[in-house]
Amino acid sequence: METTKSHIALLASPGMGHLIPVLELAKHLVSHQSFKVTVFVVATDHASLANTHLLQSPADSGDLLDIVLLPFIDVSDIGGPSVSFIATIVTTVLRSMPFLRSEISKMEFRPTALVVDLFGTDALEIADEYNMLKFVFIASNAWFLAVMLCTPEIDRKEIDEHVKNHELEPTTLKALRETKKVPIYPIGPLVRPIEKSVFGNEILAWLNKQPKQSVIYVSFGSGGTLSAQQVKELAWGLELSQQRFVWVLRPPTENDAAGTFLALGNGSDATLDYLPDGFPARTQDRGLLVPMWAPQVEVLSHPSIGGFLTHCGWNSTMESIVNGVPMIAWPLYAEQKMNASMLTEDIGASIRVMAVESDAAVGREEIRSVVRKILVDRQGRNIRSRIKELKDNAANALAKGGSSYNSMSQVANICIQHLKTKASGS
Ligand code: UDP
């Protein structure tokens, strides 16, 4: 049995937006420290997960990375489609705990630490049972963490005063460290490398034929959906902008902006009757409609992409920054509005779409205007140069001696120390 190396267990809660960063963290722990890493995946939709290449361990991780899919959990009894996706995630994770406990108890090479994401904190109890170190991985920004940790104790005004500045976020982190006694290890950006997959080849072939930085990529993350009226306005806005676009299309849902969060990608919906009459034909020369899911990292890294109309999920945001792509911020739910303010007002990496009235659909004229601002006007060029700085900062953070590298080393040292203490029986 291996005793000199640390073994880290990670728990990913349901949803691609949760799974993707946990897997990236796992790969970093393997490549950075040669740790053994096991990722436990809680999923509500095993069928479509099996279709993704995400769960295949990358060849260069050897036998150091294991990915274990926990058994399917039935949550149909908690109320059906009207139940919020958050309630579904929380219940699924909770009901997966006996399986996680059983998996960990069977392990001969017991993990030194358990890392859970935001929805996995119930599992920290299992870490205590097995004398494992505990970490919570927040795959978002420090501002979000600050709000999560501080809201019950200090009022909102104080949060704004203390944490609204960052680059990406040194002031937020400093304020957090001073306010809270929890050690914080800022890591990232954790962005998937471009993976060659058969899936998405048509999109890349189409992009190859477009001029440099001429295409707007439109996607609302793994779950985002729009109302029928909003889908129509977006279609009109794209058409009126007269710019090229790749649009990841989902059928509309009313009153549920996270409509497909738990139904994973790679599906397709052939009916396009929710689009304005004649839209696909009128825009076929300069627009590509992609049903349900696109290979986003590959798309964003393509030289033809000139902008990203995004819901501001944190993974999408980081993927845009590391690829130097200016954003149009169109937040839908959860912490996305906070991310959009940070990107637009603080960092200067995006412009934001605005509805004339809150809760109204964003109109076609506004959409036409922001798309042109990003792709055609000077504003897009200014944002691009700001993003270039952020991109360089991100590369420095990840390089040896950078802030992310150092945080990862600190965590690794804590794990190694814990292992030695356990081995010596003290
Ligand atoms: N994603 C993708 N193709 C799509 C939609 C999303 O590959 O068509 C990936 C995207 O690259 C990102 C993740 O799914 O890594 C979405 O995470 P994010 O935090 O942006 O948003 P969430 O889905 O959690 O709202």
UniProtKB/TrEMBL annotation:
Keywords: Glycosyltransferase, Transferase. One of its GO terms (molecular function) is coniferyl-alcohol glucosyltransferase activity. Pfam families: UDPGT. The keyword Amino-acid biosynthesis does not apply. The keyword Transport does not apply. It comes from the Eukaryota. Coiled coil: none annotated. Its EC number is 2.4.1.-. It is an enzyme of class 2 (transferase). SUPFAM superfamilies: UDP-Glycosyltransferase/glycogen phosphorylase. Belongs to the UDP-glycosyltransferase family. This is Glycosyltransferase. It comes from Gossypium hirsutum.
